[in-house]
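Box 3.1 A note on notation
Throughout this textbook, protein chains are presented in two layers. The first layer is the amino acid sequence; the second is a token string describing backbone geometry. Keep the layers aligned when reading.
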Amino acid sequence: MVLITEDMVRRRAEHNNCEILSLEEVSLHQQDIEKIEHIDKWCRDLKILYLQNNLIPRIENVYRLKKLEYLNLALNNVELIENLEGCESLQKLDLTVNFVGQLSSVESLKHNILLRELFLVGNPCTEFEGYRQYVVASLPQLKYLDGKEIGRSERIRARQGLDEVRRRIRQQEQDYLRKRASEKEEAQREGGEAQRGPKRESRSSAKAKNPGFDGRWYTDIKNTIPVPEENNEIQGRDEKEKTSCLSSEDQEREFWEKPCAYTPESRLEAHRHLDEKKKAKERKTVKTPKAPRTLITPNGRVMNVNEPKLDFNLTEDGDNNTIVLDLEVYRHMDTSLMDVDVQPTYARVTVKGKIFQLVLPAEVRPDSSTAKRSQITGHLVLTMPREEVGGGSQ
């Protein structure tokens, strides 16, 4: 569950120098928030609150927001209009595409005398016969319903026959609430089955799905001797293997093509499915750090390494008794990104953190070696005098 935290609110208060006590507007949309909390304590001066496209099932903890003028809860899981009586300044309420089915709950907005705009498009209650007439008659302070202006003549007509409309609305509400109760039971049942794992088929259901099959294998139509129990186990393992062989694409297609009602439960299930898929993808993309490359083995053997994948040329200058390494580093690379280390038996060059190491054909004198960049090609040239045999000249 994603919770509203103080840090989350402060990050969205940059325009107010991250000061939340005097904050007048905050946007917390598309955060997967599942509960409204703390806002009414931290942001008493709030005038505009955006909470659209979350997973909020209930309007709560906003009664202290006396200055709130606009509340956007579109694309959430709200089923009841409630707990807004304390929002004395509320002028606009957006509940587009939620799950409000108890239309009579709009009457709780009578206390919000400044309310001018209400959006209920995409809620089950908008399908009720007499929906608009009932809302217009119940909330005389409204100027717009679902973006359409309420004229004087419509308001007069809405009051006519209101008792009959109210009766029909109550009946439709009861039908809807019974339907929702069965949807919740179905969701709980499916959730329980998912936790227990796939249900094992009974023999009778196997017969129904596979006419003529009774759980035994035959080699002769007249043979009625049952096969030993281990064959049933083998068969079960085969079925499991077939199931596990379903590709992830098939499983994904099966999830999205499975018919289901659009309910708060199905929306939560879809969200959690996408969340699990995202986390699985992130786990796959996490790269395991490579083991450090061996430069010198435990027994002292020096390895040749070319991590930057550079071309090079190693020559021996007999006239000057030197060994020359021409390393083709990138022409425009800054010399500060290279580090050279010459040892008696090998030369090591670090290029942007990647190591080039080469074993030399003869011992050299590190203290007399030089490293220069070619002004023409940009190559790094190491000139390493050989160690004289016998320890020096006579």
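Residues 162-196 form the longest helix (35 residues). The CA atoms of residues 216 and 226 lie 6 Å apart.
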